[in-house]
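Catalogue entry: protein
Contents: sequence, fold tokens
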Amino acid sequence: MRGASALQEVLTENAALPLRVFVVWEPVIVTDVAPPTTGALGLIHDLRAAQYWDRERVLSEDIVRALRADPSRYPLGDELGEVDEETIVWDFIAVFPRGALWERDIPAPSFHGFPVVRSISGLRQALGTATQP
């Protein structure tokens, strides 16, 4: 929840940036049995953000599959430790360059970090450099 609030703060600070934000909620702990509540969803209220409930953790599995297939493309392995089929990617933030397409694999991010709340300064920097010509 702190990560969601921190992300909203960055979005508010950068209201003029032409961003598209995808927030994906997924079950991680045993109490995550249902989609996020209205209160949780309300933490991110920026109109540029779309929020999804990924009950089956499809996004996490896709990131893990891509990472295992080509670790050099996604410099996450050292931070995540050993990545196997049981790894769950969560509390994770990624910035993709304009025009990035998700084809077979998730595009390589220009910035990534986790947990979200600790990655906010890096996100601010990534958004600042992303607006440079």
